[in-house]
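We modelled the chain as a single entity of 231 amino acids. Its sequence is:
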Amino acid sequence: ASIIASSKSKVHKLKQNGNRRAKILDKTLEEKDKIISIVLFGNNAVNILASSIVTIIAIEYSPTVHRFYEYAPMIGSIILTFVILIFAEIVPKTIAIARPENVAMSLVFFCRMLKMILGPILYFVNKIVAVLLKTLRFNVNIEDKATTAVDTIRGEIEYHHFQGAFIKHDKDMLEGVLNLVEMSVESVMTHRKDCDMIDISSPIQEIIEFIDNTSHTRIPVYDDTPDEMLG
């Protein structure tokens, strides 16, 4: 769960700061599908093994009273279900999601080692899965082109604004930066005929009145014609 929830941007930043584990984790995230296969394989193998052991223990050590002996495997399975649910699922996954990068970096060496050990088995498992997906005509290589890095950043800005982390001014400013790529020069420029400008040859009183009535703090100045811009 920690590897799946890890932010590539945060891991990249840690890697840039010289964190050795972050470098390995960054490489591991490029093989996320293989790591997920390893985790699922190990998780299911351990759960099935634990279930088998509990069943054997329940039958072996339960009282010889017929009624209890008959329900011993079921009682053992119920107890094991709660143990696995709390100690192997909810608690570790809650911690992993709360601190994904830290947990992932602490487990990355173990995951790489499991990948080396279980690699041959997972190779055949993935081949079988690929054949099944091909039979079902499901293409896992199709990328959602609608979701880009910019869309992800926009979503983060919207989310944090909704949560109250950004005021509207900050939100508009950040979104404006993202919109720059899509803007043309003419969309942010004001045509000369719509500009407030001053003819330096105008009477001084007229110039003062013009300045008093304009809302701008910087006004272009020209001499006789707007083509002769002075500054």
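As a brief sanity check on the tokenised model: The chain has a mean pLDDT of 78. The CA atoms of residues 150 and 178 lie 7 Å apart.
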